[in-house]
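Bench log. Compound arrived from synthesis this morning; before running ITC I wanted a structural hypothesis for how zinc ion sits in the protein. Inputs:
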Amino acid sequence: MSDKTDQPAVSTKAIREIRINPVVPSEAVLVATARSMRPKKEEPPAPHDTRAHVDTCPFCSGNEEKTPSPLARIPEQGEWKLRIVENLYPVLGDDRENPHFAFGLQQTIDGYGRHEVVIDHASHGIRLHEMTEEHLSLLLSTYRTRMDELYHSNSRLKYVLVFKNFGPAAGASISHTHSQIIAMPVVPGNVQAEVRNSSAYFQANHRCIFCCLIDEALTFEATLYDRGSGEIRRKISVGQFVIERSKRFVAIKPFASRYEWEVHILPLEHASDFLDTPPEDLVDLAGILKRAMARLNAVLGGVQYNFFIHSLPHAAEYADSAPAFHWHIEICPRTSIPTGFELGSGLFVNTICPEDAAEKLRKVSLAE
Ligand SMILES: [Zn+2]
Ligand SMILES: [Zn+2]
Ligand SMILES: [Zn+2]
């Protein structure tokens, strides 16, 4: 449509295309940006609870007796900054040991596991981007320490998932800021798929696919022309998918983003296991996480989201995948409600072109 070469690499016309996730090709996203073809209902931003203290909140300071006694309290003396408590309604429990069961096509693995809550901050309504970098790096190192302890607590645990739900649309049932840790006897299917596919890529290409994606995002430039008419079909510019880059990490908008404002954060140097992250890198990660959340908040005016850490599982059969798999954080803001089409087809629908979303996020000017 536009033939101006000085135009930014932002699509000026509506696009409708199915994008294949390069890491997990069985996962596809329909990017459909025209208003008229929007098949989704928008999720209105939820009013944010800005209160610092709520008398009835079990996670607020002064109400510690409303939660089970803490598994960790940081610092141990004085006013706490973070607490880890048992989830009162665990999705997996460790109370009994049931033998695995198999009868014909009915197979079960016992529901052994742990489900814990990390009370991220003493201040009730504080949002991630409002926390200090120092506090965020304390939170990240708390995740790391607890994940490590859980992996060592029982060899039946194959995966420890750290995640956060923020806002009712993201499934948070308590408005006090918190994250969750679930240690489970199976490796989640999406992590398995990422490990399996990145291992296959490594076998064929002797490189980590995530490292290749980072290289492409930071260096790749191309113009694709239509062979017949000579018209430009697509322009790919350097940094088009990059939201920001720190010394050790990069925040990118995936080419096949499932969610309109999805952002992934990856270490720039290859690393398969989040638990190997040195403390100075966690400080750097805290900074880029804070800025990514601030950008999302600025663009969305209050963001409800899930984030989770995908790291190499500690089960023995995954050890060989260390050169192939690259740990990362996926941040998935919830701005629309999944429809029957998405649930029934497994095809995610994204109504904002990821390149445009990346540009919008990149352009936010952050104070400091
Ligand atoms: Zn509270
Ligand atoms: Zn890598
Ligand atoms: Zn992942």
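What the model suggests: The CA atoms of residues 18 and 95 lie 45 Å apart. The pocket of zinc ion (ligand 2) is lined by residues 208, 210-211, 270, 326 (CB under 6 Å).
ITC booked for Thursday regardless.
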